[in-house]
Amino acid sequence: MVSQVWYSVLVGLVAVERLAELVVANRNLAWSRARGGRETGLAHYPVMVVLHTGLLAGCLLEVWLADRPFTPWLGWPMVALVVGAQALRWWCIRVLGPQWNTRIVVVPGLSRVTDGPYRLVPHPNYVAVVVEGFALPLVHDAWVTALVFTVLNAGLLAVRIRAENDALRSAYA
Questions:
Q1: Environment class of residue 115 by beta-carbon count within 10 Å: exposed (0-12), middle (13-18) or buried (19+)?
Q2: What's the domain range around 145?
Q3: 55 pLDDT above the threshold of 70
Q4: pLDDT confidence bin for 64, thresholds 50/70/90
Q5: How many domains does the chain have?
Q6: Residue 173 pLDDT level (bands cut at 50, 70, 90)
């Protein structure tokens, strides 16, 4: 029970981090729109919001209702991966500056960012999402949530990355 409480605190902290992301994203959306930014990929955005909210809810529900244990040999490395995913996500946010968003928004006339993690991987923020998606549930053996989120997220990311690549290609062609 004590470990479940601490795990709930961790999931709560991730939820607060997600809310901070939304604050940054909304500020950046206003910045982008003021500069003629065009948003694409509107159809899949609500699905993404539901899926990511479901990840957090699933983590808590599975751990509490299925009485999942904390297994130290798995849990502690997963905590490290969750922290690493957050660090990567905020590195992406910092490097993209006002161009970062949870939505797909392209501002005409701006150069494509190729610094920081973007010189290593085309979509590093999605690497953070994938890692967090399996690591956060597995901190406390919520393997059903990890599996379901990972499978659903793979489908969503296929759509999302295609839409983002199309938007970037049209903006920087």
A1: exposed
A2: 2-171
A3: yes
A4: very high
A5: 1
A6: low
